[in-house]
């Protein structure tokens, strides 16, 4: 991969799966099928990869397993297919993180791109008025954070190749799809142009709010260092991602968050 994840995990794009090196734990991947995400697509009947993406939840170094469990912290790894789904790039269907019993709140997610490039589309709510809307473009080694209770999905921003990334989330994670599905997806939908560039089309089921498209940025307000794998940063400071499992500790940041 273009960027070192910080532990011994290897992608197999042909098999759409991961393998784990010595001292690393991880499950078999869960496969998301095209039929699973059709209701959120601009064209629900579009053709595309049968397996748009795969997910391996709960991966990491064996030496960290007990600490991760005690902190309710979970690391996941994902692979997205190359190609397109009709006029759209390969993407997830979109959701909101439901309230976790361990902290009594919706929780954030911390993405790190390992291979390829991504857009993370996010907005404040999935109500008719979605609030502020951001599409954040991230390349290998860059980090993007989605705040608690924000609706979001992930896009493979380069249809010519696979994309892989890791993410920190809470261990008792859950997804709320109700309002997203009631609106036929999120407030903005990605559309591929002739040169594989990505444009954005408003979902008319929402009130139209401006979409801010920007590059991923440094995140010093969370104490993160650029260019250092977020898994390795956790190993160096086990408290660093406490804002993931206890979002209230960063309440002032979430209030005025700029993606």
TrEMBL record:
Pathway: Carbohydrate degradation; glycolysis; D-glyceraldehyde 3-phosphate and glycerone phosphate from D-glucose: step 2/4. Pfam families: GPI. Keywords: Gluconeogenesis, Glycolysis, Isomerase. Its EC number is 5.3.1.9. GO terms for molecular function: isomerase activity. Coiled coil: none annotated. SUPFAM superfamilies: RmlC-like cupins. Residues 50-189 form the Glucose-6-phosphate isomerase prokaryote domain. It catalyses: alpha-D-glucose 6-phosphate = beta-D-fructose 6-phosphate. InterPro entries: G6P_isomerase_prok, RmlC-like_jellyroll, RmlC_Cupin_sf. Belongs to the archaeal-type GPI family. This is glucose-6-phosphate isomerase. It comes from Paratractidigestivibacter faecalis.
